[in-house]
Specification:
Helices cover 53% and strands 0% of the residues. The longest helix has 17 residues. The two termini are 22 Å apart.
Length: 196
Amino acid sequence: MTRPTWTRSATALLALSCWAGAPASAQDLAARLQSCVACHGMGGNSTLPNIPSLAAQPRVFIENQLVMIREGLREIPAMKGQLDGVSDAELSAMARHFAALPLKPAPAAKNDALFAQGQKVSEASRCGSCHLPSYVGREQMPRLAGQREDYLLHSMRQFQNNQATGRDTIMAASLYGIADADLRAMAHFLAHTTAP
């Protein structure tokens, strides 16, 4: 993002934070967002392995995750202390910012057979009943469509192994008994699923 765009973005965040009742300055929010960008990528589109893209995630999902991380209920070592002292209103402004950004999936080769297998397993597992048939997520359910493939697989394995602390336990039950090869196929399918 160029500097003028970043300045406009920070100004928009200041307006959001004032609307939400936060006393934060545009500089405070810009600094917080710059900290997010270091791992989650410019525009919320991650380029780092096992780091999720935040762009186009549902606002409520992002807010919930930020609160869980701030309160120490979801442990992410790289984020330890990053949200200390951040108000709810500031977290909401950050969530609005990332939810409004367009998702730009990482370019990767699509394997048609793996995609078809992943689609079949995802449909049989009824992933679309919570994450919507287009897999764009809603409210507290994350967007899966276009997310990083490596992150999706990493996250599903965490759920299966009861290592997804601070996240929805329903997912552990939903993924129970699914073979790792099918998890890989699901991650491939979801990462290559295009949705608005």
